[in-house]
Structure prediction request, 267 residues.
Amino acid sequence: MRTVFVTLFFASMGMLADLQWLLVPANAALVVALVIAVLVIKSVIVYLALRSVRTDRGTAAAAGLCVAQVGEFSFVLAGSAVQSGLFGRNMFQALVTTTIVTLVLTPALVAQAHGIGRRLTRATGGPRLDPEVLEPHVIVVGYGPSGREVIKALRDAKHAVTLVETNPRTAALAQKEGVHTVVGNVSAPEVLEHAGLDTAITLVVTIPDHRTAALAIDHAASLYPELRILARGRYHLYVNVLRAAGASEVIDEEEMVGRILGMDACA
Prediction:
């Protein structure tokens, strides 16, 4: 059903575009200029926003490229503008064509975003490490309920902790609570390196997504085979996946819950 609706949506978009209008050189030049302006301006805004919350350069640049397109809701706004007399035919066609072109370019931008981000990181000499990650510390990935409990226990035991969190809002909350935080997606190798993987004594992966967790574990284990890596296995099905990626120990969440329920049932 979703495929049907997506097909109808893009077919309706194509019906709004006027190829004859686009073949006029002045109109084509206008669309090219608008596409470049949109991609550059949106990418820069997202990049600066993520850099403001201490996201590394590579991740910020990749994220900016991934969301640089004009959203589908622009068709609704353009239609309303035409009906109210704010837009003429030329302005409407310029907006519609620009939106279609940016949406068509999006898969290519997403495919290249990570590579561009990594090249930017290398070109700028890599991320600068904070003094806190130059000392032995524990890296915790994820600030959900599990991550919070892990960090609380580590801080109570006087261990230095570095949190890696994808969500900027959650990261800002952790920073307000005094947790040293790096914002970024751990599936990107440079994020863990920015968090001070070379000086970490333990890596604790608490995120529920087994794919992202496995990528982070594999990267850490391949670089530092002696590093102790603890991981949360959200489902029993994926425990062996995390072990195969290089986790030293995987806490099977389903098995642990069953064990606790059994103990309570016998009490």
Summary: The chain is about 60% helix and 10% strand. The chain has two domains: 2-123, 131-266.
